[in-house]
Amino acid sequence: MPGDSKLPRAAAGALPARPLLLALPFLSLLLLLYVYSSSTTSPSTATIAITSTAAAVPLTPSPPSPHIRMRAAARYGTYEDYLRHQLNKTLDPRLRRVWATRDWHRKVSTFARLFASLQREGLLTNASRALCVGARLGQEVAALRQVGVANAVGIDLAPAPPLVVRGDFHAQPFGDETFDFEFSNVFDHALYPDRFAAEIERTLRPGGVAVIHVAVHRRGDKYSANDLLDVEGLVGLFRRCDVVRVSKVDAFGLDTEVILRKKR
């Protein structure tokens, strides 16, 4: 989740136009993050307490499932190898420029419409403590704040302050029953799907809502760790939740939305 090339030194007194142009995407990202952080109430990292920033996760296979095909475990000698592989995507400079510029407003707008719809259904409120799991640069978090959910934060292997803190979805850095609402669209990246689900259930309060976007019968990219063959493969992992709804969506390559509510 490439090596840097040396930029030519600008002539004395000349404006270094090319380096400035290359820096524009990063300046855009900083500006966007500043706008979202200053135009909305900050998520209270004080009320959403981070209990740790790292956890030891052994390299052990998930229980086999006829609904989920694991396709990545054989590539890794250690769990750290898996994390490094995922970070190759998350930290790819080209992808981060796209996420921060061309994709930013499109994704924030789409997620904001999704979250506003959930608010109308009573599945999300402005008072909800919300977590976005695998949030990359934090478009989902920005969208939550845009619709009024101020106490929202994301986790990813690489932090993107102020929207996203460092965290591993196999071992979330939060206490039990911290959140009222959790959203994720990175289930296919889970090396341990059972732990991915268990951590959402652990950190979700009773009565809290989890919304998961997945692709069914569709291979992900080279960073995906599993293929979901049937939505039952996902639903069956959430043993402490009831299904609210399973529906079709068109969400950035993902086709199915699963909404779950943790049992009281």
TrEMBL record:
Annotated Methyltransferase type domain residues: 131-212
Superkingdom of origin organism: Eukaryota
Protein name: Methyltransferase type 11 domain-containing protein
Source organism: Urochloa decumbens
